[in-house]
Write a structure and sequence with these properties.
Structural class: alpha+beta
Largest sheet: 5 strands, mixed
Distance between the termini: 59 Å
Strand content: 5-15%
Order of helices and strands: EEEEHEEEEHHHHHHHHHHH
CATH architecture of one domain: Alpha-Beta Complex
Helix content: 40-55%
CATH topology of one domain: Nucleoside Triphosphate Pyrophosphohydrolase
Radius of gyration: 21 Å
Amino acid sequence: MIKVTCAIIRNEEEEILVVQRSESSDHPLKWEFPGGKLKEGETAEECIIREIMEELSLEVVIISRLADVEYNYGIKHILLMPFVCDTLDDLPVLYEHVDFKWLEPSELLNIDYSEADVIVAKDYLKNLDASDYKNEKETDENHSAGYNEELKTMISGIMERKEAEWIANSAVENPVIFRKLIDYSFSDDDKLAFRSSWILAKVCDKEPAIIYPYLPEIVETLKNLNNESAQRSLLRIISLSEMNKLSKKHHGLLTDHCFEALKSNFSSVAIKAYSMEILYKFSKIYPGLVHELSATINMLQGEGSAGIIARGRMILRKLAEITSED
């Protein structure tokens, strides 16, 4: 039996991503939820995050797991392990598939899926209906909770998008909660740091300027952050920020950090991608960086993953525009 993971990926509009297989695949032109085979020594959670980044260059956060689906296609017998994931990215890069769609939940069963994916779609919708019913019954009695251990427990135990959205909205209105999200992003508790930084990114998407007073502190602390998932979210926040909000000292610290990430053999694809984007922004301020960044990206083109190669080519084109302007 082949063990395979798949992801029901939801964007900020609550739409769900489906992708279409190529004509030469074993299920030609069928639609599916993206994912792939489990590698030896890999957990299902590690597998789905790796597969989505490799196949689509999307950063996802696992929210929950659905029941496994066992299906015998005749030519192969699979155990499909589905995850419900959220993403802040809307545009996948297709390396193995030929098309993609973002669908409303009501449209989910109107697609020509592979058989096992039909079961996953129906199971997701069944769980979605049950969750909506539960949330309709809930009151706002927890609305005032939000500090210290209670807030930590709430963040670490998030299982629904609505919970994450509630905390993000609360943080926009409440500086104390926002400050806690920053502190928790640097926590030694990996799960707390990961989910806090992810929610922090949601807050900054809603109110980009809210992070600016804290950017210098974040930049100075990044070098001590060993949690790759949290670092990924924080670099994403910085990559979407205006660099002129930072001093020249912090420009230097961040430039060094990003170049180290690009040259490291241990940095994830997402960290390298966000580091490239940050360094590109600095190249517009300091044109002398263009040559070093171009050389570093060209080095990665020969040894990087498909996702890094695609992002690298895009940044190289943008760097060429800076050079042509001079």
